[in-house]
Structure formats: C-alpha cells, structure tokens
Amino acid sequence: MFKNVMTIVFLFASVLTGCSQQGANTYDGNWEGKLANANTLNFNLVVKESSANLYELMIMNSETTIKEKLVITNTKRLKGSIDDDIHFDLSFSQDKTAIAGFVKSGILMYHVILQKTNDGTYSGVWNIFMVDSLQSQGMYLGVENNEDGSLAMYPFFGDQRFTGTWVNGSEKEGEAIVFRDYKTGLRFRAKLLENTIKLEILLGKQTVTVTNFKRSDIDLSSLRPSGLNSQNVNKPVVLNDGWITASATDVGATKASLSKLIDKVNKKELPNTHSVLIAKEGKLIFEAYFDGHNPNISHDQRSASKSVSSAMIGIAIDDKMLTGVDQKLYDFIPKEFQYTKDPLKSKINFEDLLTMSSGLDVDGDASENNYQSSDNWLKTTLEAKMTHEPGTHANYGSANPFLLGVSLDQQLQSPLELYMEEKLFAPLGITNYIIQTENTATTPYFGGGMYLTPRDMLKFGQLYLDKGKWKGKQIISESWIAASFKKYRRLQDVKDKNEYGYLWWHKTYTAGDKKVSSIEARGAGGQYICVIPELESVVVITSGNYRSRKLLQQPENILERYVLPAIIK
Fold first, then answer.
1. Alpha-carbon dihedral sign for residues 370, 376, 377, 380
2. Residue 111: exposed, middle, or buried by beta-carbon count in 10 A (0-12, 13-18, 19+)?
3. pTM (2 decimals)?
4. Nearest to 303, CA basis, from 473, 89, 500
5. CA 546/CA 527 separation, integer angstroms
C-alpha cells in the first residue's frame, strides 16, 4: 500500500540533477502540457503465433507499436520481457479461445485477458493507470529549486482518478534526465529546452508518447477529480459478471434515503465518495458512481484486501497446503532470516498473524512505514522487537498479513499470484484486478494494495455472506468463514477499539431504534466491504480520502445514515 511514498496523491517526484543553479532558476514554477489523446496510456495487446513454441507480442497505442517475443516454457506458459521491469506470464485457456495471465510491471501485477479474434490472433487491453480512458488529456509539472542547485519535478495528471506514481531516483542520459516510476514500471525522460520541457514516457526503452510543457499560471493544488455521472435509485443494469440485479423495492428496501445519499455526494457534503453498491438477498439493488468512476475501473483497496489475504490462507488450509492456523511462522521463514528467531518470536503462529496478535512492534520497528522504507521488508520486519507475548494483545499492523503472504508463498510450488487466480478470482469470475507486490516485485503483498472493481468487491463480500459459496459452488469452506467472523480480540491501537476476526473488522451500528452488526474489510481512504448477515446484505463503498484523517470513517457515516435505513425492513 506504500503509505510512506504518497505524500501527495497523484504525485510523483524525482530530483533532477545535472542542472546548474542558473539553469535551475530558469525552470522554477508550474508548467502545463497535453497528452496526445485520452487513450495514450491504455495499451492494446496482440499475440500471434510466429513459429513452433514462439509467439509475437505487440503492445500498441495510437503513437507506437512495441514488438517482443513470447516463448512457451516447459510449464506451457507464454513468457517474455520488455526489460528488467516489465514481464509477461500468460497461458492459453483449455479451449485455446483466450490467453490470460499477468503483466508484471513495476510493483504491480496486472491481470489481463486476450480473446481470440477471427484472424487467429489474440487481443486484449492493458490499462497501466487503471482507468479505461482518461477524462482529461492535461498534464502538469511543478518545478522547484533544490538547495544544491538541482531541480525537483512534480508531474500531475488532469485525470485524478488513479492513485499516482512513485519515482525513485534519476540519472543523466546525454542532455536528458531519466527516471522510473517504481509503481507502474514506466520510464520518463525529461529534456530541458529554452522555453519548453519535453517529457517522454517510455515503456521499456520505447517511447510511447511525448508531451511538451509550457509555463502555466495554474494552481496545481486546485486539481480535483472531475467527471459527470448519472445516478439513480432504479434497478442496476445487468452486466456479464454474474450479478443478478433487482429494484430495491423487490427485496423490501426503500429508496428515499438512497436518493438523499446521491444528493449529498453530488453536493460534496460526503466528499470524494467514488461508489456505493448494495446487494440484498443475493441481488445487486443499488449502484452509484461519482467523480467519473464506473464499473470498469479497478479501485485501490488499500488494507481492504487484507481480507482477501485471509481468504487465501483459508483456501490453502482447505487445500491441505497448510495444516491449520496453529502452524508456527518460523517454520516458513527462509533460512537466511532464521537468525531473527528468539524464544518469544518462535511462538508466533498463523492465528496470531490473522488476529493482529503477533506481538511484533507494529507501531514502531515493524510498522508499514518503517519496513517499506527499507531495502528488505522481510529482514526489517523480522528484526523488529516484540512488545507483547504472541496471542495476547491485538495491535493493528500490516506486518502481520505481510508475513502470512511470505509464508504461503514459501509453501507453494507455483507462483502465489497463479494460486490466487486459480482458487479465488477465476471461480468468482473476477478478471479485472491488479495485485501489488512486496519490495522484491515477485511476490504478492498480503498487507494490502490490491485493485478490484466495486462489483467484484461486492462479490467477495457476498462469498462470505453465503458461507463460502458463489453461484452454488463452494470456494472457501463454511468452517473458515465462521472462524474468520469470530471475535478474537479488540484492537488496542485504534480509536474505537474494534473487535477483530481473521483480518475482518467488527462494528455495531444504530439505525433508528435498531442495532445492526457488520463485519468489514476496511482500507485507508474509505474502502469498505460490509457484510451484514442479519439483513442478508453486502455494502461496498469506495472513496478517495487518502489524505484526510477526519474523513477516514466517512463510509461508516454513509452506512449508518443512508444505507441501513434503506435496507432495514
């Protein structure tokens, strides 16, 4: 989830060296440019056979085509790379009508599907910035002088729906400065001209677009999400994603408070709310998107995907890949880190990690901010001191699920992301998702940071409401769902001291004179999946309040004031 790298949402920064103080003063200020078109950063992927066991991959936008080779490995997978940052790991469907797999770029694993076309090629789309089309072609640069005479450059995109990029370091390349977005794998080349800054965006070594920037008076702090949506309380549309839809009144729900909710969001009284969805009695009955968001855009889950991590541990236990939650953490830690084991740490088991009760100093040495600032996340986390006996005290910290992911990855014969696809996402019909990796860029990060569409978030909640079943198929055992929803301890380092399950939050709401219990996946910025068994309901809320502590719990206000009054009969 990279809390430490995003001080300004939608911002990336790189110190541009090699400029004299005199030259730096020339460029100080704000600059404005325009991308070639709204789909410049949406890439078409085409795969075609070129010879036995060899395929050609074409990556295209309106300005360029990149060609690379894909080789069939002994595991029958199609693999290839553009450079050290971008890798393709794909496979054919059984009937050869599609190719699916992952584009691994930067620290993200993008799940993609290419469908077979009439000419025998396979075609699909890779949205590197998550959105299906840019709302704005505008791009902006804030340039500042550093004390050493170098420049700091801050590019912003006019489309503020995606959560930004992170550039780490820069180097001189001729007359240009080159830097890389650690998050998406994109490279940037900036050339400082007399009255212009020329910025190339590169995929591998290939330029995919060029933007020229001129001086601008724009106030970059004024950039806000934009985009018009049409919301209503009518029956949601049917898409080819497995959801049955119904009118709210068909399941005994009312519409008045939902209409009021739409009005409040549009008046910015519930700021940065991106979507609200409700399923009741297994049917999608309400779906509203705001600020240009739509069903096709996968949304940053932040810590809400911790609950997905919990599901994967349950699936692995069901699968006999793990024997149970009493297994010890250090039975799975790689040999080179066994030196961190001590009498207290040796007691940590999976249930301790699932319930935030490992005893590690998650508010200090083992905090996400601390280990994500280090060169080796696992080493830093395992070297952290203990503050409590394992299994006795719950403090919320991403180090706990992070260690679960490391452990499961050590146990599997195949890559963890393929196991997640096979056992969870494919059975749920979830195809449009992104997995964040930990700092090795090879292993899914179980601490959070996945991207799912709101409808797919709702599916995941429905899976738990229906005791591990989706469309009649048992995906997770009923016993794991029950164990996950139990209340084990109260989180001591959060304001409300919530009771906590296996990476699931508990909260009781008041709607009128009725108390309603909700079990929730929660993520920073306002990402909530609320499972409400007594009302046969699941509620999803996504938001963009990543920088506002005051608004972090706004989804709880939405649920209590507007959603619950609508769905309580």
1. negative
2. buried
3. 0.94
4. 500
5. 10
Q: Where are the beta strands (DSSP E) in 225-282?
A: 273-280
Contacts by 258-264, CB closer than 8 A, 24 or more apart: 258/233, 258/286, 258/288, 258/562, 258/563, 258/566, 259/233, 260/562, 261/288, 261/558, 261/562, 261/563, 262/231, 262/232, 262/233, 262/288, 264/562
Q: Yes or no: say if 348 and 358 are a contact pair by the CB < 8 Å rule.
A: yes
DSSP-assigned beta bridge partners for residue 104: 87, 109
Render pLDDT for 249-287 as a digit per residue (tens, 0 to 9): 999 999 999 999 999 999 999 999 999 999 999 999 999
Contact of 537 with 516, CB cutoff 8 Å:
no
Single out the residue of 464, 462, 456, 408 nearest to residue 433, CA to CA. 456
Asked if 378 and 512 sit in the same domain, the reply is no
Residue range of the domain that includes 409? 304-418
In this structure, are 310 and 352 located in the same domain?
Answer: yes
The sheet that has 138-145: what strands, in order across it? 14-16, 151-157, 138-145, 29-34, 206-215, 197-203, 187-192, 176-181, 167-173
Let me know if residue 202 belongs to a domain.
yes
Mapped onto helix, strand or coil, the DSSP state of residue 407 is: helix
How big is the CA angle at 78 (ends 73 and 83), to the nearest 5 degrees?
A: 100
- Whole-Å CA distances, 302 to 26, 78, 296, 352, 568: 39, 30, 18, 21, 29
Q: Rounded to an integer, what distance in angstroms lies between the CA atom of residue 121 and that of residue 97?
A: 10
Instruction: State how many domains the chain has.
Output: 4
What is the DSSP-derived secondary structure letter of residue 502? S
% of the chain residues with pLDDT over 90 = 80
Which residues on neighbouring strands pair with residue 60, listed in sequence order?
Answer: 44, 65
Quick one: CA dihedral 58, 59, 65, 71, positive or negative?
A: negative
Residues 153 and 27 in one domain: yes
Strand intervals (E) in 182-325: 187-192, 197-203, 206-215, 273-280, 283-289, 299-300
Q: Are residues 525 and 382 in the same domain?
A: no
Domain boundary pick from 222, 257, 273: 222
Co-location of 15 and 155 in the same domain: yes
Residues 86 and 141 in one domain: no
Task: Identify whether 228 is part of a domain.
Answer: no
> Distance between alpha carbon 552 and the CA centroid of its chain, in Å?
17
Residue whose token pair is 């990796």: 437
- How far is C-alpha 185 from the chain's CA centre? 15
Q: Are residues 459 and 486 in the same domain?
A: yes
Q: What is the CATH number of the domain that holds 261?
A: 3.40.710.10
β-bridge pairing 167-173 and 54-60: unpaired
Distance from C-alpha of 480 to C-alpha of 318, rounded to nearest angstrom: 8
Beta bridge partners of residue 288, listed in sequence order: 276
36-56 pLDDT tens trace: 999 999 999 999 999 888 999
How many other CB atoms are there within 10 angstroms of residue 542's CB atom? 29
CA gap 397, 354 in Å, rounded: 11
Beta strand 527-532 with 537-543: parallel, antiparallel or unpaired? Answer: antiparallel
Binned at pLDDT 50, 70 and 90, residue 153 comes out as confident
